[in-house]
Amino acid sequence: MRGQDIPMPNQTALLPNTGRFRTLLQRSETTRGFALLSPTLLIMTVGILIPIGILVAMSFWTQVGFGFDTTMTTKNYQLAMDRPIYGALLRRSLWMSGMATIATVILSYPMAYFVAFHIHRNKMMWIVLITLPFWTSYLLRVFAWKVVLGYQGVINSALMALGLIDAPLEFLLYSQSAVVITLAHAWAAFAILPMYVSLEKIDKSLLEAATDLGDGPVARFLRITLPLSLPGVISACLLIFIPTTGDYITPTLLGGPDGAMIGNLIQKQFGAVNNWPMGATLSIILILSIGAISLSFMAFANFVRKRIS
Amino acid sequence: MSGHSYIKRPNRPLQIYAALFLVVLYVPVLFLPLFSFNTSIYVKFPLTGFTFQWYIELMDREPVWAALMNSLRVGVTTSLISTGFGIFAAKAITRYRLPGKGPLVGFIMLPLVVPGIIFGVALLILISRMGIPLSLYTVTIGHVIVCLPFAIATMIPRFEGFDPSIEEASADLGENAWWTFWRITFPMVFPGILASLLLTFTVSFDEFIMAFFLSGTDPTLPMYIWSQLRFPKEFPSILALASIILVVSFAMVFLGQWINRDAQATDSKSE
Predict the structure, then answer these.
(1) CB distance B7–A41 less than 8 Å?
(2) Which of B7, B44, B226 sits opposite A153 (nearest CB)?
(3) Which of B118, B150, B215 has the highest number of chain A CBs within 10 A, making it the mutation to test binding with A?
(4) Which helix (H) or strand (E) holds A228?
(5) Which of A181, A303, B115, B236 has its CA 20 to 30 A from that of B28?
(6) Are residues A171 and A233 in the same domain?
(7) Looking at the structure, do residues A163 and A263 belong to the same domain, yes or no?
(8) How many domains does chain A have?
């Protein structure tokens, strides 16, 4: 722990020197708060803000051999617009992430509902159980799906051993659906938490009131539970859509040529292709697209929420 | 709660769905250990026989041990730094009225949401522009950024869960801020600190994307696994290694969540 060097017993001896600083620290709550937050803010500035700044700058540079030409130019952006492959990959990534998001949210909602309304003892145990896989290696979870979906993987070999099919089903691995399934599985816990929190907050007396006023279970759900849990659903959508769009591990291991995503392309620019400025440009385009879609989604969701509540 | 029967009434289809959900959540991962004990080098049914061979083989591999040591070093450093910083950040966020706190917290939590590849390449560019060679240190920097939000999010409920007047009482009774921290705050939030240490260690130990972009010649364990994935004959030993990592990770995360369970319980109640 830091601060070991502050001499404890003879603190008074230090007071004359540090007096003014100390008073300032004790007087202003804000200063003290920011002092406590400063190590974190410092590392986040050095680790996120500055790198993103340089990323933006680099997206206007050009690769020259193993060095860079740092003259600002929008050539990379032009190129990204002109080459259809970039746009196609971006659209495909957004599409696949969108699919994974919808699948995850729809499949996870009943689970969140179940824990919020039907588990009364050991709720925490259930939450831990659901989120446990999320904390463990992403790489290994994707790897597990490769084992399951593989050409000679669990599903194919099991079906063949049972005599249900003669040849392995080829569409399982190296396809967009393989990527979508894996993404949905990997991010399920992330979807459940915000929806669970929303559902848990719902005042149960509203449900009683609805029942007393003659609503059946379905009407009660559609008129009370669902609208009130929408904020959780919205954050779940964003929490899955945003990180999955940039994923490249899953498409690399499971996607094949049809399932490649924009993340693969970005990663290649920093690896085999060795065109860092282009990679930076594609990263910026990715961030901007995610931002634009998330904002329009949030605007739309808020509009819907206002209409139904 | 006034126990109204229609809410408490068990919903059979929903129970079955929940059970199925958990099965689907866990079963794909469980195939890794299953096949790691299989004698065949091919990952397919039917199983051919039970063996410890792949685990024994793993023990003899020098690179595995080297990668393990690398991952341990990065993991321990990362968890100490991010938990240390996290304590102060969590205290600042819960105890002080700060202008612009909302956006600041949002900024700190960004690594939870923004695709890892963005931060990975951005940090890579910064580090290479500064002329710093890629090493385990650069991986550690990346991991601290990934882990700090987890550490802070783990400890915030702890700080919210105890009454600030206890700290004030200590100050009124003449303790200075430093001793108040060690004698009041630290013991009260200790389970949160322990949980944060365990969780951030696991996240760092399992982290792949930052390591992918920021490691030099010394691979971490996930990087080692990645490099071996393209050799089919290495598959069984990778399965064995993956199984060990999974078991250790599950145990550590479970322990961390268990230690911190009452903080989360009080937190969800207060919301």
Answers:
(1) no
(2) B44
(3) B118
(4) helix A226-245
(5) B115
(6) yes
(7) yes
(8) 2
Under an 8 A CB cutoff, do A152 and B44 touch? yes
CATH homologous superfamily of domain B62-270?
Answer: MetI-like (1.10.3720.10)
Angle at A132 between CA A244 and CA A293, to 5 degrees: 20
Interface test with A, best of B45, B94, B175, B182 (most A CBs within 10 A): B45
Same domain, residue pair A239 and A295: yes
Q: What's the ipTM?
A: 0.86
User: Is there a single domain that holds both residue A173 and residue A283?
Assistant: yes
Residues A130 and A6 both lie in one domain: no
- The reply to whether A195 falls in a domain is yes
User: What ranges do the domains of chain B cover?
Assistant: 62-270
pLDDT digits (tens, 9 = 90+) for A131-152: 888 888 899 999 999 889 988 8
User: Do A31 and A99 lie in a common domain?
Assistant: no
- One digit per residue, the tens of pLDDT, for chain A of length 309 reads 444 444 444 444 444 455 666 666 556 778 888 888 999 999 999 999 999 999 999 999 998 888 888 888 899 999 999 999 999 999 999 999 999 999 999 999 999 999 999 888 888 888 888 988 888 889 999 999 988 998 888 888 888 888 888 888 878 888 899 999 999 999 998 889 999 999 999 988 888 888 889 888 888 898 889 999 999 999 999 999 999 999 999 999 998 888 899 999 999 999 989 999 999 999 999 999 999 999 999 999 988 888 876
Q: Mind telling me how many Å the CA of B67 is from chain A's nearest CA?
A: 15
Q: What is the CATH number of the domain that holds A297?
A: 1.10.3720.10
Inside any domain, residue A48: no
Closest CA to A225 of A303, A112, A85: A112
Same domain, A139 and A203: yes
